[in-house]
Amino acid sequence: MPELLGDNKLQETVGKAVELLPELWKQAGLQHEAMAAYRRALLSQWHLDADCCARIQKEFAILLLYGGVEAGAPSLAAQIDGSFVPKNNTEEAILLLMILLRKCCLRKIAWDPTVMDHLTFALSLSGQSLVLAKQVEEVLPGIYARSDRWNDLALCYSGARQNLVALNLLRKSLSKSEKPNDLSALLLAAKICTEDFHLAAEGVEYARRAVENAKGEFEHLKGIAYRLLGLALERKTKASSSDSERTHLRSEALKFLEEAIIWEKQNPDWIFELGLEYAENRNLNLALCYVKEYLDLTSGSLLKGWRLLALILSAQKRYSEAETVLDAALDETGKWEQGVLLRTKAKLQIAQSSPMNAIETYRLLLALVQAQRKSFGAGKCTPKVESERVPEVGVWQDLACLYSGLSRWRDAEICLEKAKALKNYSAETSHAKGVLCEARNQTQEALAAYTNALSVDPDHVPSKVSLGALLWRTGGKSLPVARSLLSDALRLDPTNYVAWYYLAMVHKDGGRASDAVDCFQAACMLEESAPIEKFSSAC
């Protein structure tokens, strides 16, 4: 047959027949036969021209991606030793599309933008953002405007969690000489900045520009722009050292988050964020309204709504109602997702002065965590289970602190040994050791433990507060260091009433009565509305 294909007319007829056969199988609804025909067309020596071969490869890739039928691996006869063999439809489609893209870059075939569209879908589906970035970088100059290429690359790197690389690309794209008012780029830049409080101020500017440019055909994106502006302002509070500035920023953040809800009234995630923000600002009644609305919209199917509701009730000192909420959530939740609820319930029982009940709850939690580890192993559980999983080391740390408060020194030491065996260098474990040493009046050992905790994590707030309090008790020349530690803890966590209390004591001993009164008032107000865990832990 090959020697007869020299005739151009016969070659053209054969090419059309080879291209048409899989299309006929598709029209007949026989997808497996169509896939087999595509493979025969590509693997047999038909001497197809470049354009015909490219059309077959593209149509085969489209069928693999969207056909809804698993093709299975190519036959062993078609495989070459040492060659890559696709494991599923998506991998085979990616391989075909990358071959097509390479042909486009080598100018063997004309540029086809739909090839990049399908490849983007396939690689995104596979979580291969960096591979997609490489493909975008290799596209020949002149096909994409450089600002569009930068935006596409920023999306890729953002998807791969390389946010600084993505942000640098967006900064170039949004410069005055490029497209400073590109709404999609502004929204992505603002979103990246909201994830790091050091970049929050820059994020505020991007979000404000996005609000200004969300008009006309893009007006439906104004709600997203307002939400990002609210989140950026909230993150900016963490970088502020002024109480008055933090208060102003929180007020502005709430205003814009409420504005976002006006644009998308039925968005449960945004309603949850607004409820969380009100809870953080200790407006508990409004927070309760929003979290109830969130539970209604989600039909109570998500744990974070129940946990936030329980935390708000605990902040209102309605402990029995909070425990009832947790019990109801436990009844409606699968076994593997109960860990975070059990941990919250144990802390709630401690707040109600029921340490023995808390110990029993922790035992149930420990059994669950160990069963998860044996059943799933490291990194083998589903994303849903992984998101609700409680680390075993955290349970031992909690138990160590609980036993220390009950003066059960040996039990606390065993728990610390277990925690250290699981994670050798941990700020939380060192802090728990400091709590134990302090309870046993071992001041120097406690100082060393808290210092070790801060050497592992310089921003570990509980260790800063505990070390500051211990230095205040020491008195004398230690007071300035204690004040510095407590002030820094409040910069990181302005609602920590324990830090406010000990800072007040430091000011009192230092002769600054007015400052002490202000700190005492802050401590008193925050203690009245303090939850058993941080509200943000519900996320």
What does this protein look like?
With 539 residues, this protein is mostly helical. It is elongated, with a radius of gyration of 30 Å. The protein has 27 helices and no strands. The longest helix is centred in the C-terminal third of the chain and has 22 residues, at 355-376.
Task: Describe the structure concisely.
The chain has 539 residues and is mainly alpha-helical.
What is the topology?
Elements: H1 8-27, H2 31-43, H3 50-66, H4 89-105, H5 113-125, H6 129-138, H7 146-159, H8 163-173, H9 183-193, H10 200-213, H11 222-236, H12 243-263, H13 268-280, H14 284-297, H15 303-315, H16 319-331, H17 339-351, H18 355-376, H19 383-387, H20 392-405, H21 409-422, H22 427-439, H23 443-456, H24 461-474, H25 479-492, H26 497-509, H27 513-528
Helix pairs in contact: 1-2, 2-3, 3-4, 4-5, 5-6, 6-7, 7-8, 7-9, 8-9, 9-10, 9-11, 10-11, 11-12, 12-13, 13-14, 14-15, 15-16, 15-17, 16-17, 17-18, 18-20, 20-21, 20-22, 21-22, 22-23, 22-24, 23-24, 24-25, 24-26, 25-26, 26-27
